[in-house]
Amino acid sequence: MRFDLTDLKLFCDVVDAGSITHGAERSALALAAASTRIRGMENSLEAGLLVRSRQGVTPTPAGLTLLKHARTILAQSARMREDLGAFAGGLTGEVRLLANTNASTEFLPEALGRFLADNPRVRVDLEERLSDEIVGLIAEGVGDIGIVAGTVDVGGLETFPFRSDRFVVVAQKGHPLAARARVAFADVLAYDLVGLERTSALQRFLADKAARLGSGLNLRVQLRSFDAVCRLVEAGVGVGVVPQSTAARVAQTTPLSVIELEDDWAVRDLTLCVRRFADLRPYAQDLVTSLRT
Question: DSSP string of 16-80?
Fold first, then answer.
């Protein structure tokens, strides 16, 4: 069998995305080319690597074995490029950082900007994921550093405190919820909502919470940022669930009512997690240290 690094990266991207289409996008390949490569790998092995269904794809036992080796090979290849890049005066390091929506939008822009300005030869690959997904990916070695909600079980990962925040409801002045100081998420579901796009980790999290309450999200519109959500809430489109840090900042210039969510999960102590700090490359250790300050 002869698999090149493109094959191996594609296969990892497909498994991580749960879809050949989205895996192809991550690998910057056309769907037809990606499908041909996957079929070629299966023909070479004379074994199926993926179980295909309407919901997407999952790896077979053979696929899981390939996935394990592929990730090891790709990690070694990346380290080789980094080590040799120093001799060529090029990029000295890349860190894959996985974070939930709250961390990605509210805290990381400033924190990462500071680190990258001080480390011009390091690149950070930032990807937004659900907290429980992040824990699994860090444990598997897919990512270097994760930022997750403090309520998530991180197993044997090493953790460090990052930031604290909580989710609140924002509503237009005069909305039925505006006069309340606290509200349960179950009561919020009775109203039209303004939310983030479907691929957002937070939006998937809220959809799951609604489903557990036997309900759904009555989303009028879905946007790319919390600030955009607040602008549409101000216009009377619906209510939104955003971090308190966002609400406090936007409320300085926008007439919004901020209502505290009383559900336990609304409190968000954000935590940094890694497999083992001592095993991280020096620049990844530097990033962890920088993010903690």
Answer: HHTSHHHHHHHTT--HHHHHHHHHHHHHHHTS--EEEETTEEEE-HHHHHHHHHHHHHHHHHHHH
Burial class of residue 271 (count of CB atoms within 10 Å of its CB; 0-12, 13-18, 19+): buried
Q: What is the DSSP code (8-state) at residue 279?
A: G
Exposure string over 216-235, b if 16+ CB within 10 A, otherwise e:
ebebeebbeebeebbbbbbe
256 φ/ψ sector (left φ>0, alpha ψ -120 to 50, else beta):
beta
Please answer whether residues 108 and 114 qualify as being in contact, where contact means their C-beta atoms are separated by less than 8 angstroms: no
CB 194 within 8 Å of CB 237: yes
Per-residue pLDDT of 12-65, as tens digits, reads 999 988 999 999 999 999 999 999 999 999 999 999 999 999 889 999 999 999
* Amino acid letter, residue 59: P
Closest by CA to 98, choosing from 62, 69, 141, is: 141
Between the alpha carbon of residue 149 and those of residues 95, 110, 156, 165, 287, the distances in Å are 20, 19, 16, 10, 19
As a whole number of angstroms, the distance between CA 133 and CA 58 comes to 15
In the numeric block, which tokens belong to residue 189? 């579901």
Tokens of 83: 């080590």
Show the DSSP H helices in 141-218 as ranges.
185-188, 201-212
- For residue 103, the surrounding DSSP H or E stretch is none
Quote the pTM value: 0.67
